[in-house]
Design goal:
Length: 175
């Protein structure tokens, strides 16, 4: 596979971030692991919010501190996907959301990037003091389930998420 890097969103990628958002919307795709992207059309506001949310001192009270990454292909500096690591749990995350959310931009799916992106994020999870991570996926999301299993995920249980009225499968990865 080509050389890939996980980077925090910065102004250099502002245009691409909005292109990705457009792609997700056009495909009717969820924006898992994209943080506040759905709620703003201003990439600089998004980038700023990501930075604020990472720092426990500036993270809004309604959220837990989280690190936002983008997967970037070095050869053409293209943003391929997004992944968010939550440093701790609130009640919702401990049951339904888990530590890590991710998505790959629709035009770059089925090329192994989700598997690669999750693999690259696990050492960071260890660095911030986690010794195991919870990842959840909708029952029937084969691509996500395979991504988790390929990275050592062990199935724990299935829970019903009331807001979306869907069953979620919970997996743990030991770090
Ligand atoms: C789920 C998602 C992240 C997968 O990304 P991806 O880059 O296409 O995944 P990969 O190419 O790394 O594929 C991982 C595995 O899943 C399989 N896969 C991927 N998408 C699939 C699909 N739609 N149907 C069946 N299998 C699929 C791949 O063939 C691969 O299988 P393998 O291990 O046997 O080779 C992507 O479809 C996405 O962003 N979906 C919307 C957001 C989402 O569901 N996020 C996860 C929330 S838990």
């Amino acid at each position: 596979m080509e050389e890939l890097v996980l980077l925090r969103p910065t102004a250099e990628y502002a245009k691409q971030i909005m292109e990705c958002k457009k792609e997700y919307l056009a495909a009717g795709s969820s924006m898992d692991g994209c943080g506040s992207m759905r709620r703003t059309d201003d990439p600089m506001e998004y980038i700023e919010k990501c930075a604020l949310e990472e720092n426990p001192e500036t993270c809004p009270d309604s959220l837990v501190p989280a690190t936002q990454f983008m997967l970037v292909r070095k050869a053409d500096n293209k943003v391929l996907g997004f992944l968010q690591v939550r440093h701790e749990f609130n009640d919702y995350l401990s049951k339904y959301g888990g530590h890590i959310g991710y998505s790959v931009r629709p035009s770059e799916r089925r090329k192994g990037y989700a598997k690669a992106m999750l693999k690259m994020a696990l050492p960071y999870c260890r660095e911030i003091g986690l010794d195991r991570v919870l990842i959840t996926c909708t029952d029937g999301n084969i691509g996500s389930e395979k991504t988790i299993l390929a990275n050592g995920g062990v199935y724990e249980s299935t829970v019903h998420e009331p807001n979306e009225d869907e069953d979620l499968k919970r997996f743990w990865i030991e770090l």
